[in-house]
């Protein structure tokens, strides 16, 4: 039997607590996506500077797996491309 998830339960299972607090009041999925977009797609100068600083100081930690390091690096590059740096 296929369980039908309540929309609130689905939100809780997919979002971190800090994000959930920001979007829990939204009633529709469209409103939820709009709220997430306004929260996380800002292209401010401060965000660009923080991302550049992260790139310039990006180092592999001792004991870190190489594939994890590369994954973090690719994520950082994608973040930089998203803010059009």
UniProtKB/TrEMBL annotation:
Highest taxon, organism lineage: Eukaryota
Pfam families from the xrefs? Answer: Retrotran_gag_2
- The identity of this protein, by name, is Retrovirus-related Pol polyprotein from transposon TNT 1-94
Query: What organism is this sequence from?
Result: Gossypium trilobum
Lineage of the native species?
Eukaryota, Viridiplantae, Streptophyta, Embryophyta, Tracheophyta
